[in-house]
Write a structure and sequence with these properties.
There is one protein chain. This protein is mostly helical. 48% of the residues lie in helices and 6% in strands. The protein has three domains: 118 residues, no CATH class; 104 residues, no CATH class; 175 residues, no CATH class. The protein is built from 20 helices and eight strands. The longest helix is centred in the last third of the chain and has 28 residues.
Length: 457
Amino acid sequence: MWKDRIGAFISERLSAKLDKLADDDPKRVEVLAQHESTVWLADAARRVAQIQAVTHSLKPIHPDARGTNLYVEPSALPSLSELGSHALGQHFVGDVVGNAAALDVYKLLKLEVNGRSLLAALLAQDFDALAALHTDPVQAQALRDAFVSLTQPRAEGPSSHTLAKQLYWLTGSDACADAGYTLLAPLYATSLAHAVHAQVQEDRFGDANKAARQARRERKAHDGVFHDYPGLAVQNMGGTKPQNISQLNSERRGMNYLLSSLPPRWEASAVRMPVHAESVFDSLFIARPEVRRTLRALRQFLESEPDANLATRQRREALVDTLLDELVSLAAELQQLLPPGWTCDDERFAALDYHQQLWLDPLGAERPEEAQFASDWLWMDWPAAIGKAFANWLNDQLHGKLPVGDAEAREWKKVLLTDEDGFKQQLRELRDKLDAPHYIPIRKTHEELMALREQNP
């Protein structure tokens, strides 16, 4: 089988040569003689010294670097948890560097039978592969040794070059001791890079990913998997002559993918949390940009001493309504994005006002272990406390040139607790969900409510 495969390969090369010659060209006889199987294989065994099979090459580090390349089958490498050439196992493609004129020899050695390359068969001393090289066993062994030599380093020992990368790696315990370092000469894992390129190409341009990308673009359901590589970079090697780097680099037209290795970008949490805060008004609420802008506008408007008329009242109400909208949005973010019971389970929120815990963590009342929390939530005296806290906070923000006091605080509290489209609507939805009383006490003080509660346990 190997003999037929090799014979077909040589015949294809012969046909390509003859097609370029006229029928009466005297060179045809010479070409035919050169492509006799034994003659061509003997010449290939001589020229194999001009190339070297590699899995880790130096040329990609710098095209003019001279030094050691390595051919190490991935299965022979230590198995590590990190991704590396060892992950390729038996399924890898070897690369070749050297004289481009001798690459036809490597193409011969890449021929496959039953998924096994000729080079692998010769390395394993396969009998059929040896017999296909020559009828004389001694000649066949000599050809085999010549062909497999391309997997061995071309120099007598490991060597590097001034254009190659080198680094000292600390192996001892004393960083100041020169003897505690080992000099490393990194090589390019060309077989691994080729496998990565093939996978990325398929993931980016394969039919399956095209269909998945189209479904994603059209927001349609899709059974497949969509692959994406954010921050993917391309490194081109070899310029207009990628063959000068290696055979696999030439097959990729010099394209080598670099996966993103940037440090992670800090992204703020989707919702800020009142960590070690006593009140969300003085921590989260005041930190909202729209709240600060509205407060500034309200303070400037009131300090201008506007006339006591309808336009003034409407302007003031509009600014206060903006604050209420922001407050309702803040509560909704905490209620929806954080898990039920977040105020009870984390000691970082122990300082938060208890009424605000009830307000911002309503679903904590649904947990069986929070019976007291649920009872306090259902009693519904906490909305009035929230209204009072908002009123006092707003008074504090306006205090200074403005004569605000109890009357203004009562107004701010009333506005919040009677906000039909905001605070009250949010409470109404929560009461429906948790089967709570619909009555919200507004005027009674906390002490009065506690007295009523003791009378009606």
